Amino acid sequence: MIRNSHAAPDTAVVADWRQSGACRAEDPEDFFPVGATPAAKALERHAKAICWTCPSLQPCGVWALETRQPFGIWGGMTEAERAKILRRRGIRLKTGSDTA
Ligand code: SF4
């Protein structure tokens, strides 16, 4: 998945929930904070606050987990939060070496 995929749906099904996404009018960069600086954490809180108002919160989060999205905030979850959920199921997030 490309970094600015909030604006680039892959399939009609994915596009359906993305078209209702509260992030459509937001800067995609806000959903990809880098690091743990106070500025990055503020951006993370901002993105999550948008997610919590989003009608697509559930399908977005499910999609992010099912596709093991390695970066960004999806469905109100950071990559670390998704990784924690997946680890409990013996699954890891995608890495740069994954081809699928
Ligand atoms: S849950 Fe968050 S990332 Fe997903 S579509 Fe809604 S606003 Fe965008």
TrEMBL record:
User: Start and end of every 4Fe-4S Wbl-type domain?
Assistant: 22-84
What is the protein's given name? Transcriptional regulator WhiB
The protein's required cofactor(s) are namely: [4Fe-4S] cluster
| Keyword presence, Transcription regulation | yes
What keywords tag this UniProt record?
4Fe-4S, Cytoplasm, Disulfide bond, DNA-binding, Iron, Iron-sulfur, Metal-binding, Transcription, Transcription regulation
For this protein, the record's PROSITE patterns field holds: 4FE4S_WBL (PS51674)
Stated role: Acts as a transcriptional regulator. Probably redox-responsive. The apo- but not holo-form probably binds DNA.
Q: Does the keyword DNA damage apply?
A: no
Q: Which residues bind [4Fe-4S] cluster?
A: 23, 51, 54, 60
Where's it found, cell-wise? Cytoplasm
The known PTMs are summarized as: Upon Fe-S cluster removal intramolecular disulfide bonds are formed.
Instruction: Explain how, and how many, cofactor molecules are bound.
Output: Binds 1 [4Fe-4S] cluster per subunit. Following nitrosylation of the [4Fe-4S] cluster binds 1 [4Fe-8(NO)] cluster per subunit.
Family per record: Belongs to the WhiB family.
